């Protein structure tokens, strides 16, 4: 009997901390906002940080994160694990990631379907991969290692892409569904990435969402994008995270929430960072949509389990 | 080691990211037969710009001194020749001060590399392991006869740098947006970088102070450090200097005799 294929895991590992944060909107945590956040006192909502920014030994970054974590749920978002790359995972980086999870007990832990390191170079960008049986097996192996290290399911984020690989033999949604089924991981659905990739790759965002395994989605990302042109002069969208969420992305988001129910939703803003009230207002807009659909959240969760 | 079959995409995709002379990898395409040149350029741009931004964030005083265009051109050369090897960007740019020292267009600013060394040390101090600085009361409690044998344990954030130029003054004047007065760059200055209870501070050490601090931070006893400092600068003030180092948070503890 062939043992080439990985056995399909029966179900996701249970969360160590059974405190789902539910249909709450959150924001990226930027240290320059700390005084304004503290002045406002504890509030509904969660904060998401890039794990790598807190992988130093000590000092002000950890002091700020401890302060934020005292009163708010935290989402730990890894950017540099290179889960989508062909090389073995960096064991030292995995150990750092595991200790951050242990130290800060985040409500959500996520990483990207992408890679950023090759040979000895770190490129500091979320680079794309072809969707084939070979890359699928490699990605699943990497996610198994991460989930074993952090002892809980990881949420894997769909990418924004600008090119396609000639060798790809699977659609992105089929690739992501297969990952979730084989590894038991959850999914982080970045609705802006869906809109950006759909525009850049010439398919309909609604078709992508119809194919996406929404029952696996444990977090949603919303962000702004920028516009450029491709070689033919057609619109090419850039996942820039430097402005408000576009109207079209808000519409897609409401469709997703209506189908999936209310799940934690992050407003991502990483460049040209605005004052805290601007970011807060964007999160309030997401919260208003979530609140309209809170009752469907339970049905969605039962379906996911 | 050759990648497993079907996993060569990264080896095809990566080399042109930081090399504008290479063409778009032929493993990628646009949809429906569209070209992928401007599409691939998005990745080239993301990589190069974000790494230049990382250097600008680590070296803000250097960027203010040189101006943004000069800095970004210089940083682009460095990013292309020495990309990061760690996914932790706050570890990046350790070779940048030496690159600046060799950079042809920066030769009129011979102190620029030392300013960069202070900025790099500032960031290392910022991320260093937390530790409670030594209380000045601990030194007061030591009897006079045992002072010469005292050995100090350095704080993980403490660093000492020496410069043939006024690097500390130039650094301090350019870390914010305040107007810069005329500085005589030819005065040699040594820097003590520490993180006391909260924030990183950079102090200028008196003559002999760097020799003194270097000796103590490498575990040499107080008497030996003082003798070396006095040899370097006859006016060296031992009492004021040890009090200053402790007050700055350079140490976490002290002990009598060899700590081993």
Structure description:
- The complex is a heterodimer of chains A (305) and B (260).
- By secondary structure, chain A is of the alpha/beta class.
- In chain A, 40% of the residues lie in helices and 19% in strands.
- Chain A has an eight-stranded parallel beta barrel, surrounded by four helices. In chain A, strands 5-6 form a two-stranded antiparallel ribbon. A two-stranded antiparallel ribbon of chain A has the order 11-12.
- In chain A, helix 4 crosses helix 5.
- The N terminus and C terminus of chain A are likely disordered.
- By secondary structure, chain B is an alpha+beta fold.
- In chain B, 44% of the residues lie in helices and 12% in strands.
- In chain B, strands 3-4-5 form a three-stranded antiparallel beta sheet, sandwiched between helices.
- Chain B is elongated and about 85 Å long.
- The chains are: A alpha/beta (305), B alpha+beta (260).
- The interface between A and B is large, with 57 and 54 residues.
């Amino acid at each position: 009997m062939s043992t080439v294929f990985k056995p399909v895991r029966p179900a996701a590992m249970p969360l160590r901390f059974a405190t789902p944060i539910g249909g709450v909107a959150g924001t990226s945590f930027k240290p320059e906002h700390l005084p304004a956040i503290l002045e406002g006192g504890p509030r509904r909502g969660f904060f998401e940080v890039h794990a790598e920014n807190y992988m130093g030994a000590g000092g002000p970054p950890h002091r700020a994160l401890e302060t934020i974590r005292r009163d708010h749920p935290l989402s730990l978002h890894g950017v540099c694990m290179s889960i989508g790359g062909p090389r073995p995972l960096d064991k030292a980086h995995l150990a750092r990631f595991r200790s951050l999870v242990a130290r800060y007990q985040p409500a959500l832990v996520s990483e990207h379907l992408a890679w950023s390191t090759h040979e000895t170079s770190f490129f500091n960008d979320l680079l794309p991969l072809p969707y084939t049986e070979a890359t699928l097996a490699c990605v699943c192996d990497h996610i198994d290692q991460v989930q074993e290290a952090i002892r809980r399911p990881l949420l894997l984020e769909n990418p924004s892409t600008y090119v396609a690989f000639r060798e790809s033999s699977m659609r992105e949604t089929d690739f992501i569904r297969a990952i979730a089924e084989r590894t038991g991981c959850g999914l982080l659905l970045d609705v802006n990435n869906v809109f950006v990739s759909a525009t850049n790759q010439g398919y309909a965002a609604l078709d992508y969402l119809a194919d996406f395994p929404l029952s696996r989605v444990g977090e949603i990302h919303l962000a702004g994008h920028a516009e450029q042109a491709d070689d033919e002069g057609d619109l090419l969208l850039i996942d820039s995270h430097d402005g408000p969420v576009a109207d079209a992305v808000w519409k897609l988001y409401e469709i997703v929430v209506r189908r999936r129910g209310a799940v934690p939703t992050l407003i991502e803003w990483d460049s040209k960072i605005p004052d805290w009230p601007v970011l807060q207002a964007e999160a309030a807009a997401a919260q208003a949509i979530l609140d309209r659909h809170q009752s469907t959240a339970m049905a969605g969760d039962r379906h996911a389990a | 080691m050759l990648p497993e079959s079907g996993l060569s995409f990264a080896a095809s995709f990566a080399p042109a990211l930081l090399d504008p002379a290479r063409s778009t990898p032929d493993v990628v395409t646009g949809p429906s037969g569209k070209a992928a040149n401007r599409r691939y350029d998005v990745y080239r741009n993301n990589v190069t710009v974000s790494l230049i931004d990382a250097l600008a964030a680590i070296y803000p005083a250097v960027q203010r001194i040189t101006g943004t265009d000069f800095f970004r051109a210089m940083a682009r050369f460095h990013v292309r020749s020495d990309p990061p090897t760690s996914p932790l960007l706050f570890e990046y740019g350790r070779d940048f001060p030496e690159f600046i020292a060799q950079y042809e267009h920066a030769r009129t600013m011979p102190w620029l590399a030392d300013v960069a060394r202070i900025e790099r040390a500032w960031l290392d101090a910022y991320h260093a392991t937390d530790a409670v600085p030594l209380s000045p009361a601990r030194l007061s409690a030591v009897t006079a006869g045992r002072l010469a044998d005292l050995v100090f344990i350095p704080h993980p954030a403490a660093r000492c740098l020496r410069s043939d130029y006024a690097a500390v003054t130039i650094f301090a004047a350019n870390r914010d947006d305040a107007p810069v007065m005329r500085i005589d760059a030819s005065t040699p200055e040594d820097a003590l970088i520490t993180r006391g209870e909260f924030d990183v501070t950079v102090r200028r050490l008196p003559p002999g102070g760097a020799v003194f601090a270097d000796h103590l931070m490498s575990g040499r006893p107080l008497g030996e450090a003082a003798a070396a400092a006095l040899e370097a600068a006859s006016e060296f003030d031992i009492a004021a200097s040890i009090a200053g180092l402790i007050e700055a948070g350079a140490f976490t503890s002290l002990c009598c005799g060899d700590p081993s």
